[in-house]
Amino acid sequence: MTSAIVAEGISKTFGDVEALKSLELDIPEGSFFVLLGPSGAGKTTTLRVLAGLEKPDTGRVLLNGIDATKATPAERDLAMVFQSYALYPKQTAAQNITSPLRARKLPKSEVDAQLKRVSELLHIEELLNRYPAQMSGGQMQRIALGRALVRDPRAFLMDEPLTNLDLKLRVEMRTELTRIHRSLGRTFLYVTNDQVEAMSMADKVAVLREGTVQQVGAPTEIYDGPANRWVATFMGSPRMNMLDCTANGRLEGEGWSLPNPGFGVSGDHRAVFGVRSEDLSLEVRDEATALEGTVYAVEPLGDRTLVDVEVGGQRIVIKAPPTATYKVGEPVRAAVDMERVHLFDAESEQAITRR
Ligand SMILES: Nc1ncnc2c1ncn2[C@@H]1O[C@H](COP(=O)(O)OP(=O)(O)OP(=O)(O)O)[C@@H](O)[C@H]1O
């Protein structure tokens, strides 16, 4: 697949903050690529460097294979949607949306046609005559998206464009954005700290932490095969359960012991055993692959119940059916789906692969 945008060894320092540390990214043409990471990871800085709004200290930016490190933002032809909507206060929503087209002196009929197209896409027809001061944050965010979508740029760069929407609208807009992406066939580079957004929209995700890429892959590849302990706990809610252990022929922790399903370790290896709450069940069929513990807390969530269980002084969370009734202090056993467990080196925190 050809690359739309490549970041090659990009570093960027602000004073004594190393925002990006030799960052590498390869964004395939036409993909919905999500840059995912916690606050301060360097996501916005990455977008700004790619867009030409920030000059990197080292490294290169390639656009469709051509070095664009020194190109101006306009020459790069990337449409950016900012977290702060940056709308013109004295223009109506319609004028804000069409400003890039009017700047290019397109005929009115074409401007109107484009306005109609994106208003329908974003369901903002009823907002077109309003000024920014007359709109909610979520409405302004959609107008800002509209202003990017009237253009036909090389790629769209979006910096957390859904943060100001309420939950219902955010869920709706996720579906809309994936639909818009499919219909436009353009490259989307989308920044978020919300792993649910990343899981639901991305073809490909790059997980960013402290200015470096931790892992790149399809959302399910990362969810099912996290490269290290940090990625494992960042992707998924509730967080992946982690229990300290010694790995050899078996995985053994305080008060528990499981067969080693083939993790490649030699001798007694200090490790961390990871298992997601949905890969645990309180209905035990096979004694050999169960953990024993006592119920610490029960959290009914409507569609499921989270049961917090203490195992040898550490805690794990189990996703149980909504009908589950457990009492605090009650002894329970949790069946482990041994096909879906993870093991991380205690020192390096890197995933240990199976033989
Ligand atoms: N103009 C600047 N001057 C000084 N420090 C900056 C500047 N821009 C970013 N930083 C620092 O660089 C680091 C990365 O910031 P960046 O905004 O890229 O993170 P982010 O992942 O986008 O975070 P958020 O999700 O909170 O927007 C942070 O430590 C931030 O404080």
Write the layout of secondary structure elements.
Blueprint: E1 3-14, E2 17-28, E3 32-36, H1 43-51, E4 58-63, E5 66-67, H2 73-76, E6 78-81, H3 93-103, H4 108-122, H5 137-149, E7 155-159, H6 167-184, E8 187-192, H7 195-201, E9 204-209, E10 212-217, H8 219-224, H9 229-234, E11 241-247, E12 250-253, E13 256-259, E14 269-275, E15 280-281, E16 290-300, E17 305-311, E18 314-320, E19 331-336, E20 342-345
Parallel strand pairs: 3-8, 3-9, 6-7, 7-8
Antiparallel strand pairs: 1-2, 1-4, 4-5, 9-10, 11-12, 11-14, 12-13, 14-20, 15-19, 16-17, 16-19, 17-18
This protein binds adenosine-5'-triphosphate (ATP).
Global structural class:
alpha+beta
What is the strand tally?
Answer: 20
> How many domain regions?
2
Give, in spatial order, the strands making up the sheet with the most strands. 6-7-8-3-9-10
Query: Which parts are unreliable, with pLDDT below 50 for 5 consecutive residues or more?
Result: none
Rg estimate, integer Å? 24 Å
CATH homologous superfamily grouping of the largest domain: P-loop containing nucleotide triphosphate hydrolases
Unique ligands: adenosine-5'-triphosphate
Mean pLDDT: 92
Coarse morphology: globular
Find the CATH topology of the largest domain: Rossmann fold
Helical coverage, percent range: 25-40%
Q: State the CATH class of the largest domain.
A: Alpha Beta
Described by strand count, sense and barrel closure, the largest sheet is: 6 strands, mixed
Distance between the termini: 31 Å
Task: Give the SSE order as H and E letters.
Answer: EEEHEEHEHHHEHEHEEHHEEEEEEEEEE
Pfam families: ABC_tran, TOBE_2
Keywords: ATP-binding, Cell membrane, Membrane, Nucleotide-binding, Translocase, Transport
Protein name: ABC transporter ATP-binding protein
GO molecular function, one term: ATP binding
